[in-house]
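--- STAGE predict ---
source: upstream dedup step, 1 unique chain passed
mode: sequence only
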Amino acid sequence: MTMMSCCVPSRDSSDRFPCLSDPVRRSTLCLRLALVMLHLIFVGFIFIFNQEFRDNIKEQPLYTSTYLLLVAVTLAQYFFTSGSSPGYVLDAMREFAKTEASLRASEVSKQPASSKNGNVVVTIDRNRSGEHLVGNNPMNWTKMVMDMYPPGTSVRTYTCSYCNVVQPPRAKHCHDCDKCVLQFDHHCVWLGTCIGQGNHCRFWWYILEETALSIWTGILYIKYLQASFDKAWLVDVIMIILLSILSIALIFLLLLLLFHSYLVVTNQTTYELVRRRRIPYMRTIPERVYPFSKGACRNLYNFCFARTSIYAMEPLPGAHELEQMSVPYTCLDVISCRCCC
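--- STAGE serialize ---
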């Protein structure tokens, strides 16, 4: 009886925790824990060794509370962004199908009772991808998406070979997420998710908050080293090492913030900028023409305030609009703020 009980295999911890059974999710969880630990280490050393900062807790509580609030907001923004959806094409198709179904139901409800011969059924198969997801809607997904491209564009060219869906402009299949993402920018390893139309704004705010936190923490480290460089050399060495790591991270964050600010102002994505010649509908567009840009001010407004849905899609501009965009700027255009509006 005892031997039989010893031979029974114990239940693996991965069965009780599904997130640990998937290698991708497990590595993402480890990266998130590592990032949180880095924040706690850098901030914790200030509280432990910086006597001046501890004294400011009583003398200047607003200064300390503001710093701690920035730490909390940055970590909260990190988890909020990592858990947000970038906007997947399949979810947009489901939303489109629901909208079409509700429109058809409203049209049927407006008809007289004598003209109703039966119920209008809109079938949405959530287990199948591609055009079958839209069901029997008259205005199907394929027609709507292909209207966003120039006339005569082939459906096969923009059909994803992995998801079997027709991709709207600016969408791309992410091999890490194994899904097509609307307005795909890149797959962020540290966040464990794609950056796309639905969370690009949150990602920009996270970079801004992380940059501000790194600058403030670096200033506190420098003040400590200036005040107590000759007291405890071992602590100073640790502080110098941490400050060096923080400086490298700050340079990377500043470059990333400037790069994504440029993308926001010109209404581009990282994928469109880096792989421009590999995108079929952008090969014929001149290099300095940003086809989706509506002016710097309007781009900023749309990026921060105007977007009401993560499934909004932008059609490609026509030939006449592209011709106007390719006209070089003149002094009169600068006065009339052509680049802004």
